[in-house]
Write a structure and sequence with these properties.
The complex is a heterodimer of chains A (380) and B (325).
Chain A (H helix, E strand, L loop, with lengths): L1 H21 L8 E8 L6 H20 L7 E8 L6 H11 L5 E3 L4 H14 L3 E3 L14 E3 L4 H15 L4 E7 L3 H16 L3 E8 L7 H10 L3 E3 L4 H13 L6 E3 L6 H7 L7 E4 L8 H14 L5 H20 L4 H9 L4 E3 L2 E3 L11 E7 L2 E8 L2
Parallel strand pairs in A: 1-2, 1-3, 3-4, 4-5, 6-7, 6-8, 8-9, 9-10
Antiparallel strand pairs in A: 10-13, 11-12, 13-14
Helix pairs in contact in A: 2-11, 3-4, 5-6, 8-9, 11-12
Chain B lengths: L1 H5 L1 H17 L6 H26 L7 H22 L1 H4 L3 H27 L8 H19 L10 E2 L7 H20 L4 H8 L1 H6 L4 H27 L1 E2 L6 H14 L4 H17 L7 H15 L8 H12 L3
Helix pairs in contact in B: 2-8, 3-8, 3-11, 3-12, 3-13, 4-6, 4-7, 4-11, 6-11, 8-11, 9-11, 12-13
Classes of the chains: A alpha/beta (380), B mainly alpha (325).
Chain lengths: 380, 325
């Protein structure tokens, strides 16, 4: 009896392994394979799905227009569950099983940091659409990004608060669980103090918290002119709601983590008159942006957020580089991506600097009438 | 199974030989499968070591990820931060780097073991749900300390850890964990662990030092978890306090329950099948986690006693009858 049970378990395990081995990818020379890893499930799925939608849309457009180098592009997307350990597996699979020529991904820096060393050692170019942690592209010359970095965003909001809002006293409410939030806070503080401002309160919370009244009460007592909340949209919305309940009237400011339709759904009127920095503005009247927004709305029935725009741009930057390189040889492709200059994308003109980061302006949006309205542009 | 119990040393040697062979031929094997193999092996070590505490000694611990974190951060600190401060360590040759990695990993294990000792002490007073809460609290404390410590990277975590983990190290750790946990509970001394679980009062009345058994289980379990944490950190090359949250602990507990509390073989099978299975389900895309969770629910409905049921447990009990403590 026991032996039977053992045999059964062994057979189950073996069959699982065998089915895995059987699924060997065949080299197909009529398509160019591009890999993508994204958080389609898990706690940052809103970002992952947006960026995936954008990337998929770009690839579909390119394929409809005849592909690149006379070949169609096959996009292989893998989900990493927003879980540590998964990006490394997924990228190894994409490179070795699917034999992709380049990798696109991820929004969250902590996920990209896991994948970047693998792409670097395997010599496969990787373009991250929205990982703003400076360390990501420091992993090596095969790793690129098409967005600005955390220090820049922190500086932008500090400059904006001091110069445009005329604030002299600021309070900071940081999400200590997110490296993104800690990074932004540090650079905000540094720049704001350099510009002659004063930080009157520094409070913190952890993502997943639901009650921020204690921190907000302390902040209220310090009487700041502006409150910097570099959180992700779900916490930012709750913080705004509770701040208004406590009678805090000062504007809240944040970073690109605020950018999600869910922010307005949850917070409603509470975020009126608040500001956040972002990669692009939906109000931008240039034909390329409006065309992108229309197409996206037709397909997904929602306004594209910045992650969708960045996902869209990342695919186009890569395909543009493949076109210029005239080959999918990894090293030629790397050099072509590095030479990207003046690329007109939805999120602005992208030029990659010698550190493989995009230098481009940030936009500051003001929330008015349940919408993010373009307020100003801050140059690097 | 009985064969393994009788010839445990031989099995250990064979396991290490397999690990060595894998290392020799790792250049010819698909890196993706090698990676899954390494992760499976690390999960085996984690599950088997937790099984020693939860399964064999009957103490419900929810802090295994905390021990893993201590091991990860200690070892990664020694291989990443120390070379940055002391030039001597930065100039190590690859071979001596591996030796330094081994030392760092062992120190990581020791640091975790010390934490295991500290957590083991409250277990003298608490049992069941109450102990679960204490261990849960411990895991969270570790996470929060790491999060607020800037030298260790704070919420940003430690990045750029050298990639020193080899397939040999992972498989060897899994084999050694199975050997330690498997033989410990078969030994005369280790039978006290089982006695503590089955009936604490009866065990004490026949002279088993239940307190010591519990603390020892925690220390050994934590030591192995610390080693696994170090290997994991040097495989991923980046660690972050959020990796070691409550969910990670639960993941390991799930492996132990699926494998069957107190059955080393079952736990090993569960750890491998669940790790490989999760990768195999990739083809399902969005439905992957739904199917995965459904599989766990169905499995628990059909086989609440775990993969191997009471197979490993029965053997130990049979021996108890022959050789009373």
């Amino acid at each position: 009896m026991n032996l039977k049970k053992l045999l059964f378990s062994v057979v189950v395990a073996a069959s699982l392994i065998v089915t895995g081995c059987a699924k060997k990818s065949e080299a197909d020379s009529t398509v160019i394979k591009i890999g993508q890893f994204a958080s389609l499930t898990g706690n940052i799925a809103s970002f992952g799905q947006s960026s995936n939608n954008g990337t998929v849309m770009a690839i579909e457009e390119i394929n409809a227009a005849g592909g690149v180098l006379g070949k169609q592009i096959e996009l292989i997307t893998e989900d990493d569950r927003s879980t540590a350990g998964e990006p490394a597996n997924v990228v190894t699979k994409l490179i070795h099983r699917d034999q992709v020529v380049a990798v696109l991904g991820q929004v969250a820096s902590s996920m990209s940091l896991e994948a970047a060393p693998i792409c670097q050692t395997e010599g496969i170019p990787m373009i991250t659409p929205a990982s703003t942690n400076p360390e990501v592209t420091e992993k090596g010359d095969f790793i690129f990004r098409i967005c600005f970095i955390d220090p820049f965003q922190g500086q932008v909001m500090a400059k904006f608060s001091k110069q445009n809002l005329g604030a002299s006293k600021a309070a900071i409410l940081t999400d200590v669980k997110q490296d993104y939030s800690v990074g932004l806070s540090n650079f905000f503080k540094q720049t704001f103090v350099e510009l002659g401002g004063e930080i009157v309160a520094e409070q913190s919370f952890s993502s997943g918290d639901k009650d921020f009244k204690a921190q907000l009460t302390t902040i209220r007592a310090a009487e700041p002119d502006v409150i910097f909340v570099p959180a992700y949209y779900n916490e930012a919305a709750l913080i705004a709601l509770q701040a208004r309940q406590l009678g805090i009237e000062q504007p809240l400011t944040g970073g690109d983590g605020w950018d999600s339709p869910l922010l307005f759904e949850i917070a409603g009127d509470a975020v009126e008159g608040c500001y956040f920095s972002n990669h692009y503005s939906q109000q931008d009247q240039s034909p390329a942006v409006q065309e992108f927004i229309n197409k996206y709305q037709e397909k997904h029935d929602s306004v594209p957020d910045a992650m969708a725009a960045l996902g869209y741009d990342s695919a186009y930057v890569l395909v543009d580089a493949i076109k210029r390189a005239g080959t999918t040889d990894p090293e030629a492709l790397r050099d072509a991506i590095a030479a990207t200059a003046g690329f007109k994308g939805v999120t602005g003109t992208i030029t990659l600097d010698e550190n493989r980061n995009a230098s481009k302006p940030a936009v500051v949006l003001k929330i008015e009438g349940g919408k993010a309205v373009f307020n100003t542009t801050v140059e690097p | 199974m009985a064969w393994f119990s009788r010839h445990s040393r031989l099995a250990l040697g064979m396991g290490l030989l397999v690990a060595g062979l894998l290392q020799m031929f790792s250049g010819y094997l698909d890196p993706y499968y090698m990676r899954i193999l390494q992760i499976s092996a690390i999960n085996v070590a984690l599950a088997v070591s937790l099984n020693l505490v939860n399964g064999y000694t009957g103490q419900f611990s929810l802090g295994h990820a905390g021990f893993m974190a201590v091991g990860s951060y200690t070892a990664a600190g020694l291989t990443k931060l120390l070379p940055e401060a002391v030039p001597f360590f930065a100039e190590l040759q690859p071979a001596s780097q591996q030796i330094w990695f081994l030392i760092a990993t062992l120190l990581g294990g020791c640091a975790a073991a010390v934490c295991g000792f500290v957590v083991g002490i409250p277990s003298l007073r608490l049992r069941g749900d109450y102990l679960a809460i204490v261990t849960l609290g411990f895991g969270e404390i570790i996470r929060v300390i790491l999060q607020s410590n800037d030298t260790l990277g704070g919420a940003r975590g430690l990045n750029g850890i050298p990639r020193l983990t080899t397939p040999f190290a992972c498989v060897a750790l899994a084999v050694i964990s199975i050997y330690i946990c498997g033989t410990l509970v078969q030994s005369t001394y280790g039978l006290g662990f089982l006695a503590t679980r089955d009936d604490e009062i009866a065990a004490e009345s026949v002279g088993v030092n239940t307190t010591r058994c519990k603390v020892n289980a925690f220390v050994v379990g934590a030591f192995l978890a610390g080693l696994a944490g170090s290997l994991n950190a040097h495989l991923l090359t980046t660690i972050n306090p959020s990796h070691f949250g409550f969910l990670k602990s639960v993941e390991i507990v799930v492996l132990v329950i699926l494998g069957g509390m107190g059955s080393t073989y079952g736990v090993v099978i569960a750890a491998v099948v669940m790790t490989v299975g999760l990768e195999q389900l990739r083809a399902l895309n969005d439905w992957r986690m739904v199917i995965y969770s459904l599989m766990i629910i169905l499995f628990m409905l059909v086989r609440p006693q775990g993969v191997m049921g009471t197979l490993g447990v029965d053997k130990a009990r049979a021996k108890t009858k022959r050789k009373p403590v």
